[in-house]
UniProtKB/TrEMBL annotation, chain A:
Pfam families: BPD_transp_1 (PF00528). InterPro entries: AA_ABC_transptr_permease_3TM, ArtM/GltK/GlnP/TcyL/YhdX-like, MetI-like, MetI-like_sf. It comes from Cereibacter johrii. Belongs to the binding-protein-dependent transport system permease family. HisMQ subfamily. It is a multi-pass membrane protein. Residues 20-208 form the ABC transmembrane type-1 domain. This is Amino acid ABC transporter membrane protein 1 (PAAT family). CDD domains: TM_PBP2. Keywords: Amino-acid transport, Cell membrane, Membrane, Transmembrane, Transmembrane helix, Transport.
From TrEMBL, chain B:
This is Amino acid ABC transporter ATP-binding protein (PAAT family). PANTHER family: AMINO ACID IMPORT ATP-BINDING PROTEIN (PTHR43166), PHOSPHONATES IMPORT ATP-BINDING PROTEIN PHNC (PTHR43166:SF4). It comes from Cereibacter johrii. Belongs to the ABC transporter superfamily. Residues 11-245 form the ABC transporter domain.
């Protein structure tokens, strides 16, 4: 019977927190960049400009159709041979951003598709031009309906940051795996990082749901 | 029917045609509406009523013939379309309110972004029209919190805020529970009494008798009959009008 060595966990705690700091840092940057790129990519995707729209479609299919680990290796090992060399940290941010952007593009696109013809008719009949219609009517409605799946991608970004240990980024999972290699306390370490990930992600989800409730309040009883 | 002078001010359709693929949905539609006139359009489902009134403010394009609104031709010129839309308001079957904006914001958005009206002035005007449709107390609520009848009255107020000369209604009461139809029709009647030029697609024959100067009956993309409501209801000339009336009046 294994007994959990709480003292060992306590001793590893400062290391784990440093790892968590790195996890949060790459994730936060990737979340920010991917939301912006997702918006831009979605705009291109629905721009009606064929080559741009096809490029975005291809990008989304490529990211969805290839393993995430392979994408990371491509960024870290592949890009330098093409002349772009990035630090481990920025390789990690880039790989996560590339992954998450593709999913955000799809969420935002689905959100846009949920805005019916009716809104266009209303704005057109009132004489509202394209740009204010897009920014003040379509975008707010689309973003609200995209929120749940956007939240999924945000949570996925944090979880996927664990893969970055494969390129040597000293984030939470790396710290745990590294200690296990030295001390063989795998139960203690995996249990610890599971709890830490869970706390972070439950926190993010709770924030997200609060935002969702607040934004959906206007829709009243419908 | 109307002198050309009147047509210059109102709406004039001249042999308007429209196709969806192979389907000929408007066939040589010709009629005019003088300022202050109230027209009720009726006809079986799929006869082209919505398509016809949506061509007036270019929510749909026609492919042949001419449409003029206040002397401005409705064509692909953006300037013309904007001019026409400034004169023409529209109310839809499903209200089409902006769900994420309050009632007040629904009524001020276009004022502020189309006409550049300052906020305070836009809100004052919105409140005036919300009072007209008798729901000023709902101004801070969202559309989803209102009944269908209230939502439709907001939609009317939202249109009126742009101070149009002509109002189009596309089956404004068809999506409402029967007990809510009256309040919307009352609002439309009072609008008619104030002299608004109106084209209403509706099967509310009581409303037609009460306010319409003319009933236009459409079938399969054509105007089959156009007559004063008294004549149309008691003595329809065309076989198809008779058949239609016997169906909706039981
Ligand atoms: N976007 C479209 N594409 C193809 N066909 C269309 C389109 N919109 C309408 N139609 C067809 O055009 C014809 C006229 O439609 P319209 O909506 O104008 O009829 P309506 O008289 O308003 O009918 P209803 O009483 O059901 O509202 C119908 O046969 C309809 O199926
Ligand atoms: Mg219709």
């Amino acid at each position: 019977m294994t007994v959990i060595d709480w003292g060992y966990i306590l001793a590893a705690f400062p290391d784990l927190m440093r790892g968590l700091g790195m996890t949060l840092m790459v994730s936060l940057l990737a979340i920010l960049f991917s939301l912006l790129l997702g918006l831009a990519g979605c705009a291109l995707r629905v721009s009606g400009i064929r080559p741009l729209s096809y490029a975005m479609r291809g990008y989304v299919e490529f990211i969805r159709g290839t393993p995430y680990l392979v994408q990371i290796f491509f960024v870290f090992y592949g890009l330098p041979s093409l002349g772009f060399t990035l630090s481990i940290f920025w390789s990690g941010v880039l790989a996560l951003t590339i992954w998450a952007s593709a999913f955000h593009i799809e969420s935002f696109r689905a959100g846009l598709a949920s805005v019916g013809r009716e809104m266009h008719d209303a704005s057109a009949s009132l004489g509202l031009r394209r740009l204010p219609h897009a920014l003040l009517v379509v975008a707010p409605i689309a973003l609200r309906s995209a929120l749940p799946s956007t939240l999924n991608t945000v949570v996925g970004t944090i979880k996927n940051s664990a893969y970055l240990q494969a390129i040597g980024l000293v984030e939470l999972t790396f710290v745990a795996v590294d200690r296990i290699a030295q001390d063989f306390r795998s139960t203690e370490m995996f249990l610890s990082i599971c709890v830490i990930y869970l706390v972070v992600i439950l926190g993010v989800s709770a924030l997200g749901h609060r935002l969702e409730r607040r934004l959906n309040r206007p829709y009243g009883s419908r | 029917m109307d002198g050309t002078g009147a047509a210059e001010q109102g709406i004039a359709f001249d042999r308007v045609n429209k196709w969806y693929g192979q389907m000929h949905v408007l066939q040589d539609v010709t009629f005019s509406v003088a300022p202050g006139e109230k027209i009720v359009v009726c006809g079986p489902s799929g006869s082209g009523k919505s398509t016809m009134i949506r061509c007036i403010n270019r929510l749909e394009e026609h492919q042949a013939g001419t449409i003029r609104v206040g002397g401005v031709e409705v064509n692909d010129q953006r300037r013309n379309i904007e001019q026409v839309r400034r004169r023409v308001g529209m109310v839809f079957q499903n209200f089409n309110l902006y769900p994420h904006l309050t009632i007040l914001e629904n009524c001020t958005l276009a004022q502020r972004w189309v006409r550049g009206t300052p906020r305070a002035e836009a809100e004052a005007r919105a409140m005036r029209y919300l009072e007209r449709v008798r729901i000023p107390d709902q101004a801070r609520k969202y559309p989803g919190q209102l009944s269908g009848g209230q939502q439709q009255r907001v939609a009317i107020a939202r249109s009126l805020c742009m101070e149009p000369e002509i109002m189009l209604f596309d089956e404004p009461t068809s999506a409402l529970d029967p007990e809510l139809v009256r309040e919307v029709l009352d609002t439309m009647v009072s609008l008619a009494e104030e002299g608004m030029t109106m084209i209403c697609v509706t099967h509310e024959m009581g409303f037609a008798r009460q306010v319409a100067d003319r009933v236009i009956f459409m079938d399969r993309g054509r105007i089959v009959e156009s007559a004063h409501p008294d004549d149309f209801f008691s003595n329809p000339k065309e076989e198809r009008s008779r058949l239609f009336l016997s169906q909706i009046l039981h």
